[in-house]
Amino acid sequence: MTSLPLRQVVATTAVVARAPRRRGRRPLAWVAEHVVLVALAILFISPIVFVFLTSVMTSNQTLSATLWPDPWTWNNYVEAFQRVPLARWFGNSAIYATSATLLMLLSSIPAAYVLARIKFRGANVIFVAIIIAMLLPPQVTAVPVYLMWSKLGLTGTLLPLILPNALGDAFSIFLLRQFFLTIPKEYADAGRIDGNGEWGVLVRVILPMAKPGIAATAIFMFFNSWNDYYGPLLYTSENPQWWPVAYGLATFRGIHGTDWGLTMAITMLVMVPVVLIFFFAQKIFVEGITLTGVKG
After folding, report:
1. Residue 12 CB neighbour total at 10 angstroms
2. CA count, 13 A, side-chain hemisphere, 199
3. pTM for this predicted structure
4. What is the DSSP string of 207-268?
5. What is the pLDDT at residue 25?
6. Which residue, 53, 245, 263, 282, has fewest beta-carbon neighbours within 10 Å?
7. Distance of CA 45 to CAs 36, 51, 63, 186, 262, Å?
């Protein structure tokens, strides 16, 4: 009868004795568990910090071994708007990225839904063709496609880069199809019981549940269009009025390659919209990528 309380006292004393030691080891354990993540974060952030620090340096400092601006100068950002038509470049990129994203969503969502939910003869063949189109380098079809747009008189504008998205995007269709497959079929069946056709099921049932996947696909397309250099090089290089920021920055860097302070200032301004969009949309973006399975 007296041994039980004694055991409890001994156990309690041992726990109390070990408690400070555990608290002392927590910081070291945290460092050990997150050292790789911290190292990767520093690795990815370092180039952005370097670009920013260079953008606030004078031209003499950028050519030296100095890593810290002394003094800090913000004239490069003011001069950026004076030396190049940044407002027009940003406007062209916004038109290109927004229009391409909207057309992609309007065309790719129905196509992905059909491949995911409607069984018909030849569906697997179409899906394989979409995968092949996704893997096919754009340089393979660059010449015939350029000749087609040239005969239509649309070269020198952004239309050859925007209009093809009205026919769907292979990667977007693939990603959306995989996400639609993760939605239980019972929801679609319930929508049909309520009297909805396939279009009604898509609009009223599937789309509200697929917002993360749709948002992730839209962000992919927007970023890809915003950062596109190859397409504008083919179709807008002859007309500076339609240059987007990616091609405009590359052209400026080729002409003023020695003025690194100004070049880095323009680079920072180009990165700001992308960083802000991802910062505000990162939660739904990560959720869409996480929930997108590989169910076939």
Report:
1. 10
2. 1
3. 0.77
4. HHHTHHHHHHHHHHHHHHHHT--HHHHHHTTT-GGG--HHHHHHHHHHHSTT-HHHHHHHHH
5. 54
6. 282
7. 14, 10, 22, 45, 21
Pick the CATH number of 85-291 from 1.10.760.10, 3.90.700.10, 3.30.450.150, 1.10.3720.10: 1.10.3720.10
* Residue listed under structure tokens 């992308």: 274
Nearest-angstrom CA–CA distance, 187 and 179: 14
**Where does the chain hold its CATH 1.10.3720.10 domain(s)?**
85-291
| pLDDT tens-digit readout, 241-286 | 999 998 988 888 777 666 777 888 888 888 888 888 877 776 766 6
Average pLDDT, the chain: 81
Residue 115 structure tokens: 């491949």
Residue type, 267: T
User: What is the C-alpha separation between 157 and 235, in angstroms, rounded?
Assistant: 6
pLDDT digits (tens, 9 = 90+) for 157-185: 999 999 999 998 899 999 899 888 888 88
Integer CA distances (angstroms), 187 to 1, 181, 200, 292, 293, in order? 62, 12, 12, 18, 18
Per residue in 96-145, pLDDT tens?
999 999 999 999 999 999 998 888 888 889 889 988 888 888 888 888 99
Give the residue among 217, 225, 206, 227 at the shortest CA–CA distance from 271: 227
81, amino acid identity: F
Distances from the Cα of 246 to the Cα of 117, 220, 227, angstroms: 38, 16, 6
Percent pLDDT > 90 in the chain is 23
CA nearest to 130, candidates 100, 108, 145 = 108
What token pair was written down for 34?
């997150």
